[in-house]
Amino acid sequence: MQPVAAAEVWDLPAIESAAALTEWLRLNPGELEWLADLKGVLRHERPGKLVHYHYRVLTKATGEIRLIEAPKSRLKHIQRQILARILDKIPAHSAAHGFVSGRSIRTFTAPHAGRRIVLKMDLRDFFPSLAAARIEAFFRTAGYPELVADLLAGLCTNWSPRALWPGPEFREARDLYCRPHLPQGAPTSPALANLCFYRTDCRLAGLARSAGAVYTRYADDLAFSGDDEFARGVERFAAHVAVIVREEGFAVNHRKTRVMRQGVRQQLAGLVLNDRPNVKRAEFDRLKATLTNCVRSGPESQNRERHPQFRAHLEGRVNFVETVNSARGKRLRTIFDRIRWASGDK
Known about the structure:
The chain is α+β, with helices and mostly antiparallel strands. The chain has helices at residues 18-25, 29-36, 73-85, 105-109, 132-141, 146-156, 171-177, 189-196, 198-210, 228-232, 234-247, 281-297, 310-324, 326-336, and strands at residues 53-59, 65-71, 117-122, 213-218, 221-226, 258-261, 267-268, 271-272, 278-279.
Protein backbone atom coordinates (compact mmCIF):
# COMPACT_ATOMS: atom_id res chain seq x y z
CA MET A 1 0.00 0.00 0.00
CA GLN A 2 1.40 3.40 -1.04
CA PRO A 3 -1.28 5.99 -0.26
CA VAL A 4 -1.08 9.67 -1.12
CA ALA A 5 0.61 11.73 1.56
CA ALA A 6 -2.63 12.83 3.22
CA ALA A 7 -3.80 9.23 3.50
CA GLU A 8 -0.87 8.18 5.67
CA VAL A 9 -2.62 9.46 8.81
CA TRP A 10 -6.02 7.91 8.08
CA ASP A 11 -5.36 4.65 10.01
CA LEU A 12 -7.00 2.44 7.39
CA PRO A 13 -6.91 -1.36 7.52
CA ALA A 14 -4.15 -2.86 5.37
CA ILE A 15 -5.78 -5.08 2.75
CA GLU A 16 -3.09 -6.12 0.30
CA SER A 17 -4.82 -8.75 -1.84
CA ALA A 18 -8.20 -10.12 -2.89
CA ALA A 19 -7.65 -13.02 -0.48
CA ALA A 20 -7.03 -10.57 2.37
CA LEU A 21 -10.21 -8.69 1.46
CA THR A 22 -12.17 -11.94 1.45
CA GLU A 23 -10.88 -12.72 4.94
CA TRP A 24 -11.49 -9.15 6.18
CA LEU A 25 -15.12 -9.32 5.06
CA ARG A 26 -15.54 -12.93 6.25
CA LEU A 27 -16.62 -14.12 2.82
CA ASN A 28 -15.49 -16.90 0.55
CA PRO A 29 -13.97 -15.99 -2.86
CA GLY A 30 -17.11 -16.93 -4.75
CA GLU A 31 -19.28 -14.69 -2.54
CA LEU A 32 -16.93 -11.74 -2.99
CA GLU A 33 -16.93 -12.08 -6.77
CA TRP A 34 -20.73 -12.44 -6.85
CA LEU A 35 -21.41 -9.46 -4.56
CA ALA A 36 -18.87 -7.16 -6.25
CA ASP A 37 -20.16 -8.15 -9.74
CA LEU A 38 -17.33 -6.35 -11.53
CA LYS A 39 -18.46 -7.63 -14.94
CA GLY A 40 -22.05 -6.46 -14.51
CA VAL A 41 -23.53 -9.92 -14.97
CA LEU A 42 -26.54 -9.15 -12.80
CA ARG A 43 -27.66 -6.15 -14.86
CA HIS A 44 -29.12 -8.65 -17.34
CA GLU A 45 -31.27 -10.20 -14.60
CA ARG A 46 -34.77 -9.02 -13.78
CA PRO A 47 -35.27 -7.48 -10.33
CA GLY A 48 -35.76 -10.39 -7.96
CA LYS A 49 -33.92 -12.86 -5.78
CA LEU A 50 -30.67 -12.95 -7.76
CA VAL A 51 -29.92 -9.22 -7.74
CA HIS A 52 -28.46 -7.45 -4.71
CA TYR A 53 -30.79 -4.43 -4.52
CA HIS A 54 -34.45 -3.57 -4.09
CA TYR A 55 -35.53 -0.89 -6.59
CA ARG A 56 -38.04 1.95 -6.42
CA VAL A 57 -38.51 4.33 -9.35
CA LEU A 58 -39.70 7.81 -8.37
CA THR A 59 -41.01 10.36 -10.88
CA LYS A 60 -40.70 13.99 -9.78
CA ALA A 61 -43.23 16.69 -10.62
CA THR A 62 -40.76 18.00 -13.21
CA GLY A 63 -40.83 14.63 -15.00
CA GLU A 64 -37.31 13.75 -13.88
CA ILE A 65 -36.72 10.20 -12.66
CA ARG A 66 -34.90 9.15 -9.51
CA LEU A 67 -34.02 5.55 -8.71
CA ILE A 68 -33.80 4.43 -5.08
CA GLU A 69 -31.52 1.39 -4.83
CA ALA A 70 -31.67 -0.24 -1.39
CA PRO A 71 -29.13 -3.04 -0.87
CA LYS A 72 -30.36 -6.34 0.49
CA SER A 73 -29.30 -7.37 3.98
CA ARG A 74 -26.12 -9.30 3.10
CA LEU A 75 -24.63 -6.56 0.96
CA LYS A 76 -25.85 -3.84 3.33
CA HIS A 77 -23.96 -5.49 6.20
CA ILE A 78 -20.76 -5.49 4.13
CA GLN A 79 -21.23 -1.88 3.07
CA ARG A 80 -21.70 -0.83 6.69
CA GLN A 81 -18.40 -2.53 7.52
CA ILE A 82 -16.65 -0.61 4.73
CA LEU A 83 -18.28 2.60 5.96
CA ALA A 84 -17.32 2.14 9.61
CA ARG A 85 -13.80 0.76 9.14
CA ILE A 86 -12.62 2.70 6.07
CA LEU A 87 -14.77 5.62 4.94
CA ASP A 88 -15.57 7.08 8.37
CA LYS A 89 -11.82 7.35 9.04
CA ILE A 90 -11.29 9.72 6.12
CA PRO A 91 -12.17 13.40 6.72
CA ALA A 92 -14.56 15.17 4.37
CA HIS A 93 -13.98 18.75 3.27
CA SER A 94 -14.92 21.38 5.85
CA ALA A 95 -17.62 22.70 3.50
CA ALA A 96 -19.44 19.33 3.44
CA HIS A 97 -22.21 19.13 6.06
CA GLY A 98 -24.45 16.30 4.86
CA PHE A 99 -23.89 12.86 6.39
CA VAL A 100 -20.82 14.03 8.31
CA SER A 101 -20.51 13.34 12.03
CA GLY A 102 -20.94 16.50 14.10
CA ARG A 103 -22.46 18.46 11.21
CA SER A 104 -26.08 18.94 10.25
CA ILE A 105 -28.57 21.07 8.35
CA ARG A 106 -28.06 23.70 11.06
CA THR A 107 -24.29 23.86 10.51
CA PHE A 108 -24.93 23.88 6.74
CA THR A 109 -27.21 26.92 6.93
CA ALA A 110 -25.73 28.89 9.86
CA PRO A 111 -22.90 30.59 7.89
CA HIS A 112 -25.49 32.10 5.52
CA ALA A 113 -27.85 33.60 8.10
CA GLY A 114 -28.28 37.35 7.99
CA ARG A 115 -26.27 37.81 4.78
CA ARG A 116 -27.27 40.34 2.14
CA ILE A 117 -27.55 37.70 -0.60
CA VAL A 118 -27.73 33.89 -0.69
CA LEU A 119 -27.14 31.82 -3.82
CA LYS A 120 -28.55 28.28 -3.86
CA MET A 121 -27.60 25.80 -6.57
CA ASP A 122 -28.42 22.09 -6.93
CA LEU A 123 -26.47 19.30 -8.59
CA ARG A 124 -28.28 17.12 -11.07
CA ASP A 125 -28.21 13.31 -10.58
CA PHE A 126 -25.52 13.61 -7.89
CA PHE A 127 -25.15 9.97 -6.85
CA PRO A 128 -25.50 8.24 -10.24
CA SER A 129 -23.10 10.80 -11.75
CA LEU A 130 -20.34 9.14 -9.72
CA ALA A 131 -19.25 6.25 -11.92
CA ALA A 132 -17.50 3.15 -10.61
CA ALA A 133 -14.22 4.26 -12.21
CA ARG A 134 -14.21 7.28 -9.91
CA ILE A 135 -14.85 5.13 -6.85
CA GLU A 136 -12.06 2.75 -7.90
CA ALA A 137 -9.70 5.72 -8.25
CA PHE A 138 -10.64 6.91 -4.76
CA PHE A 139 -9.79 3.56 -3.14
CA ARG A 140 -6.46 3.50 -5.01
CA THR A 141 -5.75 7.01 -3.72
CA ALA A 142 -6.36 5.65 -0.22
CA GLY A 143 -3.54 3.18 -0.88
CA TYR A 144 -5.29 -0.05 -1.86
CA PRO A 145 -3.86 -2.22 -4.66
CA GLU A 146 -5.69 -2.11 -7.97
CA LEU A 147 -7.66 -5.36 -7.59
CA VAL A 148 -8.63 -4.61 -3.98
CA ALA A 149 -9.72 -1.09 -4.95
CA ASP A 150 -11.80 -2.48 -7.82
CA LEU A 151 -13.49 -5.03 -5.56
CA LEU A 152 -14.24 -2.44 -2.86
CA ALA A 153 -15.70 -0.18 -5.53
CA GLY A 154 -17.75 -3.08 -6.90
CA LEU A 155 -19.25 -3.67 -3.45
CA CYS A 156 -20.23 0.01 -3.21
CA THR A 157 -21.55 0.54 -6.77
CA ASN A 158 -24.29 -1.02 -8.84
CA TRP A 159 -25.53 -1.62 -12.38
CA SER A 160 -29.33 -1.42 -12.40
CA PRO A 161 -31.12 -4.17 -14.40
CA ARG A 162 -32.01 -3.08 -17.92
CA ALA A 163 -35.46 -4.57 -17.39
CA LEU A 164 -36.29 -1.56 -15.16
CA TRP A 165 -36.28 0.69 -18.22
CA PRO A 166 -38.34 -1.07 -20.93
CA GLY A 167 -39.42 1.77 -23.23
CA PRO A 168 -37.78 4.54 -25.28
CA GLU A 169 -39.10 7.14 -22.83
CA PHE A 170 -36.60 5.77 -20.30
CA ARG A 171 -33.56 6.09 -22.56
CA GLU A 172 -31.94 8.86 -20.47
CA ALA A 173 -32.52 6.96 -17.21
CA ARG A 174 -31.27 3.74 -18.80
CA ASP A 175 -28.05 5.45 -19.93
CA LEU A 176 -27.54 6.87 -16.42
CA TYR A 177 -28.39 3.88 -14.24
CA CYS A 178 -27.36 0.90 -16.38
CA ARG A 179 -23.68 1.73 -16.02
CA PRO A 180 -21.86 1.09 -12.74
CA HIS A 181 -22.63 4.03 -10.46
CA LEU A 182 -23.05 5.06 -6.85
CA PRO A 183 -26.53 3.88 -5.76
CA GLN A 184 -28.78 6.22 -3.82
CA GLY A 185 -29.84 4.07 -0.87
CA ALA A 186 -26.58 2.31 -0.02
CA PRO A 187 -25.08 3.24 3.39
CA THR A 188 -21.68 3.87 1.79
CA SER A 189 -22.92 6.25 -0.92
CA PRO A 190 -23.17 9.55 1.04
CA ALA A 191 -19.64 9.21 2.45
CA LEU A 192 -18.17 8.21 -0.92
CA ALA A 193 -19.97 11.09 -2.63
CA ASN A 194 -18.52 13.55 -0.10
CA LEU A 195 -15.01 12.14 -0.48
CA CYS A 196 -15.13 12.05 -4.28
CA PHE A 197 -16.40 15.65 -4.31
CA TYR A 198 -13.43 16.82 -2.22
CA ARG A 199 -11.52 18.47 -5.06
CA THR A 200 -14.68 20.20 -6.29
CA ASP A 201 -15.32 21.46 -2.73
CA CYS A 202 -11.78 22.86 -2.69
CA ARG A 203 -12.30 24.70 -5.97
CA LEU A 204 -15.71 26.08 -5.00
CA ALA A 205 -14.46 27.20 -1.57
CA GLY A 206 -11.55 28.99 -3.26
CA LEU A 207 -13.88 30.64 -5.77
CA ALA A 208 -16.14 31.80 -2.94
CA ARG A 209 -13.24 33.31 -0.99
CA SER A 210 -12.08 35.22 -4.07
CA ALA A 211 -15.58 36.73 -4.37
CA GLY A 212 -15.92 37.64 -0.69
CA ALA A 213 -18.41 34.82 -0.07
CA VAL A 214 -18.73 31.70 2.06
CA TYR A 215 -19.57 28.22 0.73
CA THR A 216 -21.20 25.15 2.29
CA ARG A 217 -22.68 21.99 0.79
CA TYR A 218 -25.30 19.51 2.00
CA ALA A 219 -25.20 16.47 -0.33
CA ASP A 220 -26.23 17.94 -3.70
CA ASP A 221 -27.25 21.38 -2.36
CA LEU A 222 -24.64 24.11 -2.86
CA ALA A 223 -24.96 27.35 -0.89
CA PHE A 224 -23.00 30.61 -1.22
CA SER A 225 -23.61 33.90 0.55
CA GLY A 226 -22.02 37.30 0.96
CA ASP A 227 -22.59 40.98 1.23
CA ASP A 228 -22.11 43.95 -1.12
CA GLU A 229 -19.09 42.66 -3.06
CA PHE A 230 -20.70 39.27 -3.70
CA ALA A 231 -24.09 40.78 -4.55
CA ARG A 232 -22.62 42.90 -7.35
CA GLY A 233 -21.35 39.89 -9.30
CA VAL A 234 -23.60 37.03 -8.21
CA GLU A 235 -24.85 36.13 -11.72
CA ARG A 236 -21.31 35.92 -13.11
CA PHE A 237 -20.28 33.97 -10.01
CA ALA A 238 -23.06 31.40 -10.59
CA ALA A 239 -21.79 30.88 -14.14
CA HIS A 240 -18.28 30.20 -12.80
CA VAL A 241 -19.70 27.65 -10.36
CA ALA A 242 -21.47 25.84 -13.20
CA VAL A 243 -18.23 25.69 -15.19
CA ILE A 244 -16.24 24.24 -12.28
CA VAL A 245 -18.95 21.69 -11.58
CA ARG A 246 -19.00 20.66 -15.25
CA GLU A 247 -15.21 20.37 -15.37
CA GLU A 248 -15.36 18.02 -12.38
CA GLY A 249 -17.85 15.71 -14.09
CA PHE A 250 -21.11 16.93 -12.53
CA ALA A 251 -23.94 19.16 -13.71
CA VAL A 252 -25.95 22.00 -12.18
CA ASN A 253 -29.74 21.76 -12.25
CA HIS A 254 -30.25 25.33 -13.43
CA ARG A 255 -34.01 25.23 -12.86
CA LYS A 256 -33.35 25.07 -9.13
CA THR A 257 -30.83 27.93 -8.96
CA ARG A 258 -32.10 30.67 -6.64
CA VAL A 259 -30.68 34.13 -5.89
CA MET A 260 -32.23 35.32 -2.63
CA ARG A 261 -31.71 38.88 -1.42
CA GLN A 262 -32.63 40.24 2.00
CA GLY A 263 -35.92 41.61 0.74
CA VAL A 264 -37.31 38.09 0.18
CA ARG A 265 -37.49 34.99 2.33
CA GLN A 266 -34.07 33.34 2.18
CA GLN A 267 -34.36 29.55 2.47
CA LEU A 268 -31.95 26.62 2.48
CA ALA A 269 -32.83 22.99 3.20
CA GLY A 270 -36.30 24.04 4.36
CA LEU A 271 -34.99 26.57 6.91
CA VAL A 272 -35.48 30.34 6.87
CA LEU A 273 -32.20 32.30 7.11
CA ASN A 274 -33.03 36.01 7.09
CA ASP A 275 -32.22 36.45 10.78
CA ARG A 276 -30.97 33.05 11.96
CA PRO A 277 -31.69 29.46 10.86
CA ASN A 278 -35.26 28.66 11.82
CA VAL A 279 -38.12 26.40 10.81
CA LYS A 280 -40.89 28.04 8.83
CA ARG A 281 -43.61 29.45 11.05
CA ALA A 282 -46.35 27.67 9.09
CA GLU A 283 -44.62 24.29 9.51
CA PHE A 284 -44.13 24.87 13.22
CA ASP A 285 -47.82 25.81 13.62
CA ARG A 286 -48.97 22.70 11.69
CA LEU A 287 -46.84 20.38 13.80
CA LYS A 288 -48.00 22.07 17.02
CA ALA A 289 -51.64 21.65 15.93
CA THR A 290 -51.06 17.96 15.11
CA LEU A 291 -49.51 17.31 18.52
CA THR A 292 -52.27 19.20 20.30
CA ASN A 293 -54.94 17.19 18.48
CA CYS A 294 -53.10 14.00 19.42
CA VAL A 295 -53.41 15.00 23.07
CA ARG A 296 -57.10 15.86 22.73
CA SER A 297 -58.36 13.12 20.39
CA GLY A 298 -55.66 10.45 20.45
CA PRO A 299 -52.77 9.94 18.00
CA GLU A 300 -54.77 7.58 15.77
CA SER A 301 -56.99 10.53 14.78
CA GLN A 302 -53.99 12.39 13.29
CA ASN A 303 -52.24 9.55 11.47
CA ARG A 304 -53.96 10.33 8.17
CA GLU A 305 -51.03 9.11 6.07
CA ARG A 306 -50.98 5.74 7.86
CA HIS A 307 -47.39 5.90 9.08
CA PRO A 308 -46.56 2.42 10.44
CA GLN A 309 -44.45 4.04 13.20
CA PHE A 310 -46.37 7.23 13.82
CA ARG A 311 -44.87 7.87 17.25
CA ALA A 312 -41.32 7.69 15.89
CA HIS A 313 -42.36 9.86 12.94
CA LEU A 314 -43.73 12.62 15.18
CA GLU A 315 -40.81 12.44 17.59
CA GLY A 316 -38.38 12.75 14.68
CA ARG A 317 -40.10 15.95 13.58
CA VAL A 318 -39.93 17.31 17.14
CA ASN A 319 -36.25 16.38 17.36
CA PHE A 320 -35.56 18.29 14.16
CA VAL A 321 -37.16 21.47 15.52
CA GLU A 322 -35.19 21.06 18.76
CA THR A 323 -31.90 20.98 16.84
CA VAL A 324 -32.78 24.15 14.93
CA ASN A 325 -34.56 26.21 17.61
CA SER A 326 -34.32 24.90 21.15
CA ALA A 327 -37.04 27.22 22.52
CA ARG A 328 -39.61 26.19 19.92
CA GLY A 329 -38.53 22.57 20.23
CA LYS A 330 -39.06 22.65 23.99
CA ARG A 331 -42.65 23.84 23.50
CA LEU A 332 -43.35 21.00 21.09
CA ARG A 333 -41.66 18.45 23.35
CA THR A 334 -43.91 19.46 26.25
CA ILE A 335 -47.00 18.75 24.14
CA PHE A 336 -45.55 15.51 22.73
CA ASP A 337 -44.89 14.18 26.25
CA ARG A 338 -48.60 14.61 27.09
CA ILE A 339 -49.77 12.28 24.30
CA ARG A 340 -51.23 8.98 25.51
CA TRP A 341 -49.93 6.20 23.30
CA ALA A 342 -51.38 2.70 23.08
CA SER A 343 -49.14 -0.02 24.42
CA GLY A 344 -48.27 -1.24 20.90
CA ASP A 345 -47.40 2.18 19.48
CA LYS A 346 -43.79 2.74 18.47
